[in-house]
Amino acid sequence: MSSSSSSVSFSASAASVSAASGAGHPLARYGWDSAWEAEFAPYAADGYVPGRVVRVDRGQCDVVTAEGVVRADTAFVTPHDPLRVVCTGDWAAVDTGGTPRYVRACLRRRTAFVRSTSSQRSEGQILAANVDHAVVAVALTGELDLGRIERFLALAWESGAQPLVVLTKADLVPDPVVLGHLVQDVEAGAPGVRVLAVSSATGEGMGALAEIVAGGTSVLLGVSGAGKSTLANALLGTDTMAVGAIREVDGKGRHTTTTRNLLVLPGGGVLIDTPGLRGVGLWDAGHGVGRTFAEIEELAGECRFHDCAHRTEPGCAVLAAIDAGELPERRLDSYRKLQRENQRIVAKTDARLRTEILKDWKRTVAASREATAIKRGGRTR
Ligand SMILES: Nc1nc2c(ncn2[C@@H]2O[C@H](COP(=O)(O)OP(=O)(O)OP(=O)(O)O)[C@@H](O)[C@H]2O)c(=O)[nH]1
Ligand SMILES: [Zn+2]
């Protein structure tokens, strides 16, 4: 009855499609395009095949290639720098010739989501790569926490993805006027960001959301209970992600995540939903903070002093806008708070970088001493 083309899995005959690119390529639905193809050319020349990483485990990953999902070893792409470790969403060059198969390289990321793993050892952890849309889910239950939305937006901008705010559970706000005001409140604090009210329960706004995410790769951000899993299920049209319970217990009694972290949406587009993206923190999001508060940065450009702190300075355009009722004071407070938070993280990172550089330098010194010792040992003279 239904056509087989709507099936989520595919088993393309690689021979018939390997020469094609763009829309006809079996990986097109995973985001493969002519720019990736161009970047991949040297690896193709080496006999490697392209694939997108759908899941990473310890030492191994699942990569979707033109011939389906393959398991590959990541030994060649696990450098010491945690930010350069292969991650979900990466485009990879896979050597499928031997056993095990190996990921030989990752293509340069267009965008990347990172977070600090702990407050003590401020190290970045890469969460998702090559994301186009960062969907910030915010439930329309209780009071809107604009500061929290701004925090997610800063992180989204920082990643390089285009943020989008989705106000979920719109069915709980039956009065369209009230709903319109809520949307406007969020819009006022989110310059350059689209704000959509949706309901997975009634389907309201879901068509518009599906249309946006159809054009690329998306992630869902938001606090617990924001309705991310429900949104994912609605977009996927399945129950692959059990709402509120994506972790299962495996045979050895351990908790494991059993779902793939990168999924093709039936309406087009790709969804990345890694557990680590839930409850993300800021990570050197200085640029992202600026984008989130674009109107303040713009006003700051008109302050008399270029290093104006917008506190007591004469000729301050930011304070003038607040006085004129054009800029809510809350926005400036929020801006400062995120900037301070970010500076603390950057300071910690700098400390870590200094330690790393010192370690590298010591290693270099030790290596050159060793080399000198070998020379003195008489091989060259
Ligand atoms: N009324 C209403 N309830 C919703 C809607 N979407 C989600 N919910 C409910 O909100 C609760 C939380 O939804 P989830 O999708 O589990 O939220 P989440 O963001 O995935 O939460 P975590 O998995 O903890 O990160 C569930 O009880 C859902 O049934 C909606 O459109 N309308
Ligand atoms: Zn100023």
From TrEMBL:
Residues 121-280 form the CP-type G domain. It comes from the Bacteria. It is an enzyme of class 3 (hydrolase). Its main location: cytoplasm. Belongs to the TRAFAC class YlqF/YawG GTPase family. RsgA subfamily. One of several proteins that assist in the late maturation steps of the functional core of the 30S ribosomal subunit. Helps release RbfA from mature subunits. May play a role in the assembly of ribosomal proteins into the subunit. Circularly permuted GTPase that catalyzes slow GTP hydrolysis, GTPase activity is stimulated by the 30S ribosomal subunit. Monomer. Associates with 30S ribosomal subunit, binds 16S rRNA. This is Small ribosomal subunit biogenesis GTPase RsgA. It comes from Streptomyces pyxinae. The gene is rsgA.
